[in-house]
Structure formats: structure tokens, C-alpha cells
Write a structure and sequence with these properties.
The complex is a heterodimer.
Chain A lengths: L7 H4 L13 E6 L5 E6 L17 E7 L5 E5 L8 H13 L6 E5 L4 H4 L14 H28 L6 E4 L2 E4 L4 E4 H8 L28 H5 L15 E7 L6 E6 L1 H4 L4 E6 L3 E6 L2 H10 L1 E5 L8 H11 L5 E6 L2 H6 L3 E9 L11 E6 L4 E5 L4 H12 L6 E5 L13 H10 L6 E4 L2 H6 L7 E9 L5 E10 L2 H5 L25 E7 L14 H20 L4 H6 L6 H14 L10 E9 L2 E11 L5 E11 L6 H20 L5 E2 L2 E2 L17 E6 L12 H18 L17
Parallel strand pairs in A: 4-5, 9-19, 17-18, 21-22, 25-28
Antiparallel strand pairs in A: 1-2, 2-3, 3-4, 6-7, 7-8, 9-12, 10-13, 11-12, 14-22, 15-20, 16-17, 16-19, 20-21, 23-24, 24-25, 26-27
Chain B lengths: L1 E6 L2 E6 L6 H8 L18 E4 L2 E4 L12 E3 L1 H4 L3 H12 L9 H14 L5 H8 L9 H13 L3 H5 L1
Parallel strand pairs in B: 1-5
Antiparallel strand pairs in B: 1-2, 3-4, 3-5
Helix pairs in contact in B: 3-4, 3-6, 4-5
């Protein structure tokens, strides 16, 4: 997802553009019902970049310590599998000197001012930002609380602060052997002034950060007690399922509900502008009722629209004048002076998310307010959406956030919440709206189709003296975060558009082309970087082949400005045995990516059957994500990210015919299964650099490694995803 | 008409159409939400429960087809020897990510382990390939099943 702090010029040279110094602001108060409440604020970086004054104090981390010693972290970053409910409390526990188990997590309520993500300016979990945004504030929160508790104990005993230390949830005065637990100290600590000098632990003294702590959310997820949004249970609640117009942008025409009304358990049929819903006692009856409706749709302007139309529009757009994203040297001039010029068109399809938990939302609209139960990555937007539909002020809309059964960017949008409130508004009882899988896939917010032109000019030795990359596609930012869409440039769409390489002459530019109204594009695990990694790393492999050079050493020679990228490339080549011979029938491909503050290189080994079927046998992944918080979670994110990316590379494609999405369930929108998964080896570089993101980089790197391996094996260059097995048939 | 269902050792009378899938009876009428909805077409395995110990997809199993058979769900699988081992292995190896598919994964894995205490890779593929995980926890699922199959507690199942 979009990262507003990325400096495209700097990152286009494979270097991190961050490192802005941040001032942290502390506030101490007594917790309701006794105890210590600590708020930590830091200026939102996404806006001006300047430090905020105290009048703009915006605390975004709350740590509460109760009289019984229970530590509560009010968590604004949601858990969708990436491990924030473990990594974030680890930051607090490390500095506070408590066991991780002593920290309980509470979902934060919606409040951009209190709980905004400092990297993005509002309350959002996405863009692999959690560790990067909260690495410092949560440690400061823990350290400040520790400092206060030690001061309170020293005052109680009338001893020097320096003679006391904190350990295992207590303050100890070693010379006398006295000890007070945090719970015994909180009331006194809450009366103390804000400490002037909060000293963070030296990294060499970390006992928790950097260790593989056990996930705090695992037990409930293995015994069925974990509560996702879809598991909401409210007294008097009914279940609804919905069908929106299958043609993009179409409206509801007429509905004959006579048969549906006779279905046992059906309570009510609700009409919306573009959809119809059936409310029933249970989902079985709601689905049966929906199937019994006779619906006519007003198909609207896109009734004949197809994928071919969309691709033609993008192709035409890519020849229009473009907006410059990155420019160094003079790529056009250098290109024309090159003895060898290489041009290629790369394409990536629309993609659905297909999170395992289908879209759902439970709503109770009362006379005096509204409650929403959901799992969302953007809780304040969920609140605003419900307020907009009901007309209630924000403070009358309560949003209860939940664990997310997969996010991948889908739950950064609130279309399903708006719809659920529209349905619930028509009844006076709570209603849980559940989308069928078909509804979930056919009315997704899709990863854009990208149509990119890449060119390079090589000198006599095959060295690229010019590199250009024109991105054509929908702008997610223009819809999702309009202020970030400036001068026609979607910074996400072009992120990592020249890879981590130091080309002397480089031009990356962008042309916006939107699909018809009703087909919405959105975030999808690593969207900008994932798309550009495929384009750039596939093309780099073409350049290496044209130069008759080894793909690893060819890339390596261009990573002079990016030692960390070079290091992961070297590590992956070593661990994969890049220079060792392979068995017959196996091809090997490499890719290296910098994105979300992390460096990843991967080698894929593949075979191709006579029927063209690609089998990925082994993936080796090297990662430098800076300081690691929880290495086992990071490893899991690489394993999972690679698997997610492989699904897209091998199968992922949403197509349109007659204005309708053709796919609808896991039979025609396939996901990788256990028998298809390669062995995955993950090697991590231990580093003291600032933490990088881990949710998305693993996904971004895999597809190019696979197509490059196919080229190495078959000589066939695939410039489009998903992989077309028909092109690879040999029988 | 009413159907009497035997679930996790208890008896429940359900007043719903006979073609109602068991999944919705569990989730919406009995508030047993550990069993998950993923596809509605037996394509993803999220809704897997046991019928007399065999893994079935509750999203396509209608309540008029259940008769006297005993249904076991994720809520009660920890009471079986194989369930204990599988749940422990899942925790030991940190399998879960978002966790939504894991009820179904665990039900499939438990059924496998109960009938085959030492499954080979091909057995695991066969038993588990009906369960989709979008987070991509497959590698750890495979390791966890193997971990459970060699765990010292294995003998207790025979005894």
C-alpha cells in the first residue's frame, strides 16, 4: 500500500528515504477506576513533516496499568494475521520490564486524533507500516511508564532513583532487597510529572525484541473461540445476504419476492439502489430466499464491457502524455545513443482478494444511534460511513472492531459497511449482512490492471545506460486518499518503478486510466511495489539475457548504491546454490526488491510439464527488514507472502464479459493448495537499521523469480500474469 | 419440520427446512461460530466438521442427511486424543496467521491423525488439499501434522 513518506527519487536508487527525527510527547493521568494511564503522542509525519507543537498533542499509544498490575495496551493496529497483536505489545513489554503475557490488548475505538497511524495520518493498518510507525512510540510508552514507576518507588522508600531498577513487573531496591509491584505503585506514579528524560533501552539489552515470542492470538485460533467480525452474536440479531447488480455500475430494476416470502425463516426483503437483500433467521434461509427472488437488473452503460475493452483503453492510454515520477539524467537521449535498444510491454490482471472470511458487517440502527460490529483496517472510515448513511453524528456511531479473517487490503475499504448500514436502517433489530463467496469475488475492490512499457538502452558491454518505465493504470490514491494524488501522479502506482538500481539515465512516468464507473480499484498486498517488481525484475532478466550475462551478477553490478540490496542478493545466491548445476528439467530465476523499508531477494526453482503446467519446487528468500521485532512472525510473513504471490502468479485473474466479473468462487478463482506449495527457505540478515515492513515484500518478489526461472528453463519470456500455460506446452 | 441433531455429545432440536446446511445451524441457530463459512460449495474446507469421526464439509451437508450420526466441531475437538495433539502442534509450531481457516484445517488434520498416526507427505496432501489458507500457512501445517505424529503422546491414543 501507499507510503507517503517514500521519497521516490531517493528510493529509486535503492536507498531508504526515511530517518526524519521525531519528537515524542507524553501525557500522564490517573486511569478511570484507579491506576496509571499513559498517552504517547508524536507528530503525524504524513502531513507537514514538521514537529507538532504541544497544542497539537495527538497521543496515539495508550498504556494503562491497573492496581492489580494488569497492563493494557489500547491497540490501534488491527490483527489480520501479520502478528501485530504480538509484535506491538512486545515493544511495550521490553521497555516496561514485564512479561508479554502481562499485557492485555484492547481494540482501540475509532479516533484519528488519538489513535492515528503517524505514517499515514489517520487510524489505519496497512502498507506494512505497523512496525515502522510504532517502533519508537510504543517503546517510549513502556520506558516512560517504567521511569515513573521507578520514581514512585524511590520516593516511597526515600532512596536514590539510581539505586532502584525494574524487573518482571516490579520495582526493586537491590541494596535493601525491598520490592513493590507495579500495581502497588500506579496511583502514586499517576501523580508524578512527565519525566524529562525517558531513556530507551540499548539494543544490546533487549531480552524480548528480536526473540521469537509466541503469538498472543494463537490459542483462540486453534480452539474456535477467536472472534472475527462474522462471529458477532447480538441478542435479537437476524442474518441477511445480498445480491448487488452483477453488471458493473448497474442498478436494481424490479424484484418479484412472492416465492422468497414463502421460504421458511425468511423475514424481509430489502431493496437498495443497486442491490437486494434477504433478511432471515439464518444464512441458509437467507440464501434460499435470495435464490427464490426473480430479479431484473437495470444493466446501465457497461453491459457490453469486457477485459479486451479495458486492455485496449490502457494500451491507448500508455501512448498519451505521461506525468514524470522519477527522472535522472536524460533517458531519452541516452536511449537514442545506445547501440542496443530493448522494448517490452508487461501486463498484470485485475485481482480479487478472496480473504477467507467473506465480507460481512453487523449493524444495529436504533433511534438514538448505531452500533457496527466488523473487522476493518480503517475503523474511523467505518464510523464515518455508518454516520453518513444514518445521519447520526460520529459520537452516536459505535464501531466494535474484531480480528480480521484476512485483510490483504480489502478491508481498507468500507463499501460493505455502507451497504450493511443501508440494509440495517430499514429494520429495527440488529442484522448481520454476510456476502456469499460469489458476492465477495464479484463485488470486490480490485487490484488494478496495469499495462506498462519498459525500455532500456544497452552499451556495447550490455550495461544499461538508459532505463525507462511507463506505468498505465487506475489510480487507487485518487479515490482512496485524494490529497495524496497530486499533479496527476499516483505515487503508489510508480513506487519501485526502477527497482533498487542506480541507472545513470532513468525515467519513470505514469498515465492514469480508469475502468468504467462501478468497477472500483483498491489496495492488494503490496500493490504498487508488487506490480512494479514483476515488471522491472522480469525486464532486468531480459536485459541480462540480451547482454549474455548471469542474472545475479548483472543485477549486482547495478546495486552499487544499495549495499543492503546487494547483501540480500548475495545471500540468496549463496543459499540457493545459484552457481551450482541443477538437475535436468529444473530452471532457476532470481529477483531482488526494495519496498516498505525492507530488502528481499528470492530464487525460485521450477519445472514445466509437457502440458505447460508450472510447478514451483523450491523458493529461497533472503530478507533484510532492519531491526526484527519477532523473527518467527517475519519468517511466517515471508512464507505466507510468497504463497500469496504464487497464487496470483499461477492463477490470479479477474476477467470481465458483458460487464460482469466472470469468476465467483474457488473453482474458477483458484488459490494455491498444500500439495502445490514449494519448500520455502527464509534467511534473515540481523540488522540494527530501523524496522522495515514485512507484510508485503515477500509477495512482491516471487512472481518475477518464477517467470525468470521459466525463461531459464524454456527460453520463453512471459510478460503477463497469470502464467499462461498454453504458451509453455511442449507436447 | 424438526430435526434432532447430536453435536459434541449434546442433543439439539432444530426447526428448519431439511435442506438447510449444517453450517448455518451450527453458526446461526446454535451460536457455535468456531466452524467457519468460506465458500458454500465444499471448495475451501473452512467449514469442516466430523461426522462419526470423518471430515465433512458442513456447508453442503443438509440437516436431513445427518440422522443419528454424531457431529463433532472445533469447539469439542480438544476432547479427543488426536485433537489435543494437533492443537498443541499448531501452537508449538506457530501455524496460525489470520486464523480464519484454521478451525477447518485442524478438523481435517485431526481426522487424518486419528486414522493414521504417522502420515506421509502424500497422506497429508490428500487429507489437507481441500482446505485453503490464503495467508499461506501450509508449510507449517505440514510440519505441525508431522510434529503431532511423532510427539511422545502418540502412544496414549492406542491405549
Amino acid at each position: 500500500m501507499f507510503d507517503p513518506l517514500v521519497d521516490l527519487e531517493v528510493e529509486s536508487q535503492g536507498k531508504t528515504s526515511r530517518g526524519i527525527s521525531r519528537r515524542t510527547v507524553l501525557k500522564i493521568s490517573a486511569a478511570a477506576g484507579g491506576g496509571l494511564l499513559l498517552s504517547v503522542g508524536l507528530p503525524h509525519l504524513a502531513g507537514s513533516g514538521s514537529a507538532a507543537d504541544d497544542a497539537n498533542f495527538a497521543p496515539n499509544a495508550f498504556v494503562r496499568i491497573a492496581r492489580d498490575g494488569q497492563v493494557t495496551l489500547i491497540m490501534n493496529q488491527v490483527e489480520m494475521g501479520q502478528g501485530t497483536y504480538t509484535s506491538m505489545p512486545m515493544l511495550v513489554a521490553e521497555e516496561l520490564e514485564v512479561d508479554l503475557a502481562q499485557i492485555r490488548i484492547e481494540h482501540a475505538p475509532p479516533d484519528d486524533k488519538l489513535y492515528g497511524n503517524p505514517r499515514l495520518g489517520f487510524q489505519v493498518t496497512g502498507g506494512s507500516t505497523s512496525a515502522r510507525a510504532f517502533w519508537k512510540p510504543l517503546r517510549v510508552a513502556g520506558a516512560a511508564a517504567r521511569t515513573l514507576l521507578i520514581s514512585a518507588a524511590a520516593a516511597t522508600w526515600n532512596v536514590e532513583i539510581a539505586s532502584c531498577h525494574a524487573a518482571k513487573g516490579a520495582v526493586i531496591h537491590a541494596p535493601s532487597g525491598r520490592k513493590l509491584t507495579y500495581g502497588e505503585l500506579v496511583d502514586q506514579a499517576a501523580k508524578l510529572p512527565v519525566p524529562n528524560d525517558v531513556v530507551l533501552k540499548d539494543r544490546k539489552d533487549f531480552t524480548l525484541i528480536g526473540t521469537s515470542a509466541k503469538r498472543t492470538d494463537a490459542t483462540g485460533k486453534v480452539n474456535g473461540t477467536a472472534e472475527f467480525g462474522i462471529d458477532t452474536k447480538i441478542p435479537g440479531m437476524k442474518i441477511a445476504t445480498v445480491s448487488a447488480c452483477p453488471v458493473i455500475g448497474g442498478k436494481l430494476g424490479s424484484v418479484d419476492e412472492s416465492k422468497a416470502r414463502n421460504v421458511k425463516g425468511v423475514i424481509k426483503i430489502v431493496r437498495l439502489d443497486d442491490a437486494v437483500a434477504v433478511i432471515a433467521d439464518h444464512m441458509g434461509a437467507a440464501k434460499k430466499g435470495l435464490e427464490a427472488l426473480v430479479i431484473t437488473w437495470d444493466q446501465g452503460a457497461s453491459a457490453t464491457f469486457s477485459t479486451a475493452d479495458m486492455v485496449q483503453q490502457l494500451k491507448d492510454a500508455s501512448s498519451r502524455p505521461a506525468v514524470v515520477a522519477v527522472e535522472r539524467g536524460d533517458a531519452v537521449k541516452a536511449m537514442s545513443a545506445s547501440p542496443t535498444k530493448i522494448d517490452a510491454v508487461y501486463q498484470m490482471p485485475l485481482l480479487a482478494h478472496a480473504a477467507m472470511e467473506p465480507m460481512n458487517c453487523t449493524v444495529h440502527v436504533r433511534k438514538d444511534g448505531c452500533d457496527v460490529w466488523v473487522g476493518t483496517q480503517v475503523i474511523t472510515r467505518a464510523q464515518a460511513a455508518a454516520a453518513a448513511v444514518t445521519g447520526f453524528p460520529l459520537d452516536k456511531v459505535k464501531v466494535h472492531n474484531h480480528l480480521l479473517g484476512g485483510g490483504f487490503g480489502r478491508r481498507l475499504d468500507v463499501d460493505g459497511i455502507t451497504q450493511a448500514v443501508q440494509i440495517a436502517k430499514q429494520v429495527d433489530y440488529p442484522v448481520k449482512v454476510i456476502w456469499t463467496r460469489e458476492e465477495d469475488i464479484r463485488h470486490d475492490v480490485y487490484r488494478p490492471y496495469y499495462y506498462d512499457r519498459l525500455s532500456a538502452g544497452l552499451d556495447e558491454k550490455g550495461h544499461p545506460i538508459a532505463f525507462s518505465h511507463r506505468v498505465a493504470g487506475s489510480s487507487i490514491l485518487a479515490r482512496w486518499l485524494p490529497p495524496a494524488f497530486k499533479n496527476g501522479l499516483d505515487r503508489d502506482a510508480v513506487e519501485a518503478g526502477a527497482g533498487p538500481y542506480s541507472f545513470e539515465n532513468v525515467l519513470v512516468d505514469y498515465v492514469r486510466q480508469e475502468p468504467p464507473a462501478g468497477l472500483t480499484t483498491g489496495w492488494w498486498r503490496g500493490v504498487g511495489v508488487t506490480h512494479n517488481a514483476f515488471m522491472v525484475e522480469g525486464f532486468m532478466d531480459e536485459l541480462a539475457a540480451a547482454a549474455r550475462q548471469d542474472p545475479v551478477s548483472y543485477r549486482r553490478a547495478l546495486l552499487g548504491n544499495s549495499p543492503r540490496a546487494k547483501a540480500v542478493l548475495d545471500l540468496v545466491a549463496d543459499k540457493a546454490g545459484w552457481y551450482k548445476p541443477l538437475p535436468a528439467g529444473i530452471g532457476r530465476g532470481v529477483s531482488v526488491v526494495f519496498g516498505f523499508g525492507s530488502y528481499v531477494a528470492q530464487v525460485a526453482e521450477v519445472s514445466v510439464g509437457k502440458d505447460g503446467r508450472v510447478r514451483v519446487k523450491r523458493v529461497v528468500c533472503a530478507l533484510d527488514c532492519g531491526q526484527m521485532i519477532n523473527p518467527d512472525t517475519i519468517k511466517a510473513q515471508m512464507e505466507g507472502g510468497i504463497t500469496f504471490g504464487l497464487t496470483a502468479a499461477l492463477y490470479g485473474e479477474i476477467t470481465l464479459k458483458d460487464g460482469r466479473v466472470e469468476q465467483g468462487n474457488f473453482d474458477n478463482y483458484q488459490a494455491l493448495r498444500i500439495n502445490e506449495v514449494p519448500t520455502i527457505e527464509v534467511y534473515m540478515i540481523y540488522s540494527n537499521e530501523e524496522p522495515g515492513g514485512i507484510g508485503e515484500p515477500g509477495t512482491a518478489t516471487i512472481a518475477p523469480a518464477v517467470v525468470n526461472a521459466i525463461f531459464a528453463l524454456t527460453g520463453k519470456r512471459l510478460r503477463q500474469l497469470p502464467i499462461d500455460t498454453a504458451q509453455l506446452k511442449s507436447a | 419440520m424438526a430435526y434432532r441433531l447430536s453435536i459434541n455429545g449434546g442433543s439439539h432440536v432444530i426447526d428448519a427446512d431439511g435442506d438447510t446446511p449444517l453450517l448455518w445451524v451450527l453458526r446461526d441457530l446454535l451460536s457455535m461460530t468456531g466452524t467457519k463459512f468460506g465458500c458454500g460449495m465444499a471448495l475451501c474446507g473452512a467449514c469442516t466438521v466430523h461426522q462419526d469421526g470423518n471430515p465433512i464439509r458442513s456447508c453442503i451437508t443438509t440437516i436431513d442427511s445427518i440422522g443419528d450420526t454424531e457431529i463433532t466441531t472445533i469447539e469439542a475437538i480438544g476432547r479427543t486424543p488426536a485433537g489435543v495433539k494437533i492443537q498443541k502442534a499448531w501452537l508449538d509450531l506457530e501455524v496460525v496467521q489470520c486464523g480464519y481457516c484454521q478451525s477447518g484445517q485442524i478438523m481435517s488434520a485431526t481426522a487424518l491423525l486419528a486414522r493414521n498416526p504417522s502420515p506421509k507427505d502424500s497422506d497429508i496432501d490428500e487429507a489437507m488439499s481441500g482446505n485453503i489458507c490464503r495467508c499461506g500457512t501450509y508449510i507449517r501445517i505440514r510440519e505441525a501434522i508431522k510434529h503431532a505424529s511423532v510427539a511422545p503422546a502418540t502412544n496414549s491414543q492406542k491405549g
